[in-house]
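pipeline: protein-struct stage 2 | run 1193 | Chemokine (C-C motif) ligand 34b, duplicate 1
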Amino acid sequence: MEQCRILRFTQFFCLTVAQDHKVKGACCTKVSTANVTDPIINIRMQHKSLPCVKAVIFETAEGEFCRDPNLRWVQEKVKKFFKKTTPTPTSSISNSARVGGSTQTTVSLL
């Protein structure tokens, strides 16, 4: 009897852990806390609008994964992704002058 109980728990645990919340249909209806380890191609934010939940959607070659935007590791991964994909400006401010109550700036491109 004890062996059956352990077997059922093990099956339930394996099925629960193996289930990953991917985008199904039009939006994420659930989020997961599991880390995304595949290379990220794109990231989208989804706002709550029932049945859709607030989520960060990580797009990888394996599919799109719904994650909780409140998790620290999710926030760090989003910052790192956009920092890496945002080009650095190639301009420098060369001159600033106050004209008529506002600051006028001349920008030179390098």
